[in-house]
Amino acid sequence: MYFRIKVSGEPQPTVTWYHDGEPVRADYAREIESDGSLTIPSTELKHSGVYKAVAVNIHGSEEREIKLMVNEETGASTAVAV
Fold first, then answer.
1. What's the mean pLDDT in 24-53?
2. Residues facing 63 on adjacent strands
């Protein structure tokens, strides 16, 4: 699953991802790209939930949420904007 976001501003905003309210850390299962996008190469049931991207710079912040649903039986994933 790939959550691509486009952020712009001066200075360039920093992006922080949250999964069900907890900060996302890059690890073996999740990668945070240099442009702020989030990649989950192989989704598992534990990845289901609400993801929120928060972009912040000195002028303010903006956030977007998306719900990821992973099928327990097939492992197939679906993302829906919240």
1. 92
2. 54
Please state the rounded mean pLDDT for residues 64-73: 90
User: Minimal CA–CA distance to 51: which of 69, 26, 35?
Assistant: 69
If we measure between CA atoms, which residue out of 4, 7, 13 comes closest to residue 79?
A: 4
Closest CA to 82 of 25, 27, 18, 13: 18
Name the percent of the chain lying above pLDDT 90.
Answer: 63
This prediction's pTM = 0.88
Three-class DSSP category at 63: strand
Alpha carbon 31 to its chain's center:
9
